[in-house]
Every structure is written in C-alpha cells, then in structure tokens.
Design brief:
Length: 279
C-alpha cells in the first residue's frame, strides 16, 4: 500500500500499436514492404495463432500513439484542482512518437515538485514502453530518470516500495489468479471501466486512422485509473470519507466543464458513472 498522497499527482495511461519501421529493422524486411505486410510479419514472429492472430508484441516493437493524464494539484490552502490532458489533444491528428514522448517528459521535468505518478499495470507496461521507446527515439528524459541518493531528497520513479510511482495493480493484487483488470476493479467500485472501446481495438483504430476514438478511450482509462486511486486512498485512510466525496465532486465538476465545451466522450463517461452509482 502507498503511504502518501502528494500535492501533485499524475494518473496516466498509454496506448500503443505495432511500429512498422522497427519491424523492418528487427526482421530485416525490405524497405518498400507495405506497413500492413510488415505488421503481419511482426505478429507471425510474435507467435500468432488461430486463437490469437494479433499477439501481444514486445514494447520495443511498438510505438506510443496516445498518452492521457489526470492532473491533481493541491494548493497550500488545501484547495484541489483536477484537469485532464492528452497527447495528442482530442480531434488533433497523430503526433510523431518522438514529439509525443518529448512533450510528456519535458512537461514532467518542468513540474515543481515532480508529480507522483499513478497507473494501473504501469510498472510492467506503461513505464517500460515509455523508457524503451524513448531510448529508441533518442529522447532525453533526465528528470524522469533522476534517482536521488536518499528517499527524502526527492521523487524516485524506480524505487520499489516508494511512493513516486504507484502501480495500483501491484498495490491491490500481488499478481495472483485473483488479480482484477482495471475494468473489473472499477466496475466493482461503481466507476466506469471499458465502455464502447476495448484495448484490443486500438490497433485496428490506428490502422483506420481513427485517432479521435483512441484518444477518447485513452482519456477514459486515465480517468478510471484516477478514480480507482481515489478509492484506494480512502481505503488506506489517506482521505476521510468527506474529503473523498469532495475529491470525486472535483472530478464531476471538471467533466461538466468538458461537456459544456462539447466533449461527447466525457458526456458518455459521466452518464455511465451516474448509471453505475444508481445501481
């Protein structure tokens, strides 16, 4: 269990898809081979079968296509603000992977204090792919990688058992057969999990160029991660029931602002949340 709720928290989530240029290099494929054929070879080499035609590829063979984060900041007077950000922004075309990663790591490095990162399966998925694809793209992430000499000297995203990076899946499960998915844990809490898009849909959406649906799905997962983190903080006694209720209300206020600005994905998310709370 984590020990602290920082004044600056980033609950984040990534989406990724096979990267044809990497596939060409790894498997020495012709430079003029179409991307679709390259991806087919990547899946074949990755162990494709009739039951699993699109196997889970190693992170180094994929490119990050979307990143979303819920940013919680608590001021000295105790007031809390919540914002939802994504790369690319909703409605924008895909970003070059290097630009996406650089903007994320630069934004993180400029924060003072550095944010406490919260994810679900982030220790074995999101953080490794950030690192592997950052290395592949020649990105510098000095602030992200910095490790203080002593725990009290700053945030350390790689310290096991530390609070700089909280992987909720690790916190709640121990990685046994009883490990819940984010959707299962969220639904048990009355929080929206997966709705009209699933993780397996991301590759087909990417191939189809449907960046908007990928980003909307990504943002919803980041919101779900954040709300599950709030519930876990309540369980740990790091928030009182009244404070937890107020924090959830901050999220609802943020969603209302997004909806007023025409954000249909957030309207669907809030409607689903209301329906689950009514059960």
């Amino acid at each position: 269990m984590f020990r602290t709720v920082a004044n600056n928290v980033w609950a984040f989530d990534l989406e990724w898809a096979p990267d044809p240029p990497t596939g060409r290099r790894v498997y020495d494929l012709p430079p003029d081979m179409p991307d679709e054929e390259v991806v087919r070879v990547m899946w074949e080499r990755g162990g494709a079968s009739d039951d699993e035609p699109q196997p889970y590829l190693k992170y180094a063979l994929c490119r990050v296509v979307s990143l979303a984060v819920v940013i919680r900041k608590q001021r000295e007077d105790g007031r809390v603000s919540v914002a939802l950000a994504s790369l690319p922004h909703p409605g924008e075309p895909a970003l070059a992977e290097k630009e996406l990663l650089t903007r994320f790591f630069t934004g993180l490095g400029q924060e003072d204090p550095k944010p406490q990162l919260v994810g679900f399966n982030s220790r074995t998925a999101d953080v490794p792919i950030l690192m592997q694809r950052g290395i592949a793209n020649g990105v510098m992430a000095m602030e992200f990688c910095h490790r203080p000499a002593k725990p009290w000297e700053g945030i350390d995203y790689f310290a096991k058992g530390g609070d700089g990076h909280i992987d909720l899946k690790d916190v709640v499960s121990g990685w046994g057969k009883g490990t819940p998915s984010l959707h299962e844990l969220a639904a048990a809490c009355g929080i929206p999990g997966k709705m009209d898009t699933q993780g397996d849909d991301v590759v087909s959406l990417w191939v189809a160029g449907d960046m908007r649906r990928i980003v909307d799905y990504n943002r919803c997962d980041a919101l779900t991660t954040y709300l599950v983190w709030l519930r876990t903080a309540l369980f740990a006694g790091l928030m009182s029931p009244d404070v937890h209720a107020a924090e959830e209300e901050c999220v609802r206020d943020m969603l209302a602002r997004q909806i007023d600005a025409g954000d249909e994905a957030m309207a669907r998310y809030l409607a689903k949340w209301d329906a689950l709370r009514a059960v």
